[in-house]
Amino acid sequence: MHIPLKFSFQQQTLWLSSQRCIFWEEENTLIASDLHFGKTGHFRKSGIPVPQNVYTEDLQRLVTQFQYFKPGRFVVVGDFFHSVANKEMDLFEKWRNDFSHISIDLVKGNHDILHASWYRMAKLNVTNQLHIPPFIFVHDIADITEAEKNAYYFSGHIHPAVIVGGLGKQVLKFPCYYFGSQFSILPAFGRFTGTVVIDPNKADTVFAILPANAKKGEKGVVIQL
User: Fold this and answer.
1) Is 128 exposed, middle or buried (0-12, 13-18, 19+ CB in 10 A)?
2) What CATH number is associated with residue 133?
3) What is the reported pLDDT for 41?
4) Spatial separation of the C-alpha atoms in residues 106 and 127, rounded to whole Å
5) Beta strands, E only, the chain
6) Domain span at residue 13?
7) Is residue 49 part of a domain?
8) Is 215 inside any structural domain?
9) How confident is the prediction along the chain (225 residues), in pLDDT tens digits per residue?
10) Torsion of the alpha carbons at 18, 191, 156 and 64, rounded to the nearest 10
11) What is the spatial distance between Cα 112 and Cα 110, in angstroms, rounded to a whole number?
12) Is residue 29, in this structure, part of any structural domain at all?
């Protein structure tokens, strides 16, 4: 099992997981963004052969995080789902029933277009913005026109990545956690997603997420750059 990295921020304790989610200790809350559940099924429906195990592995990773951190609440910072309902939603419903004791808040993203009745059936609390002091959760930070005084925003949407130089002239790209002065950007939890390379300032705090390598016996790890 990976060992999460402790990050003290805004007088709060955040545990950054190599599985692309954060456990907020004071609120007993797991936070993730851009899971894009159902995306592989959406592609297959369009005739693009994407194996379903990509989706089931993402679900299992989330189960593992629930079992490890034992949160009472799960906050999804947008794009929990990818498109309209498909057969993969049946698997999600079973997963949801297995964890019905956990409260789930969904901050709607641009891909969260399922009917309101489906969200109610899945027992999801849906909102456009979620305020849990001292943080405010919004899917796309670009949608904020006037920042609330003394508030710090958590966002997702762009699937951030960072370039890290390797041996010689080797260049590696990794998903990352980004923490700026006014907002953070979370990595995409879903593995079947693209990434956008960010160019942080010196004052920003960035953590690269290095993947596990089972063949070498290496576990996933989060490192501060």
Assistant:
1) exposed
2) 3.60.21
3) 41
4) 6
5) 5-9, 12-16, 22-24, 29-32, 73-76, 103-107, 124-127, 130-132, 135-137, 152-155, 160-165, 171-179, 183-185, 196-197, 205-210, 221-224
6) 5-158
7) yes
8) no
9) 578 999 999 999 999 999 999 999 999 999 999 988 765 444 334 444 444 565 678 888 889 999 999 999 999 998 887 555 556 677 778 888 889 999 999 999 887 888 888 888 888 999 999 999 999 999 999 988 766 767 899 999 999 999 987 666 777 899 999 999 999 999 999 886 778 899 899 999 999 999 876 555 557 899 999
10) -50
11) 6
12) yes
The Cβ of residue 76 has, within 10 Å, a number of other Cβ atoms equal to 29
Q: Compute the C-alpha angle 139/68/64, nearest 5°.
A: 70
Cα-Cα-Cα-Cα torsion 108, 39, 90, 137, nearest 10 degrees, comes to -20
* Alpha-carbon gap, residue 146 to 151, rounded angstroms: 11
Domain count of the chain? 1
Three-state secondary-structure class, residue 89: helix
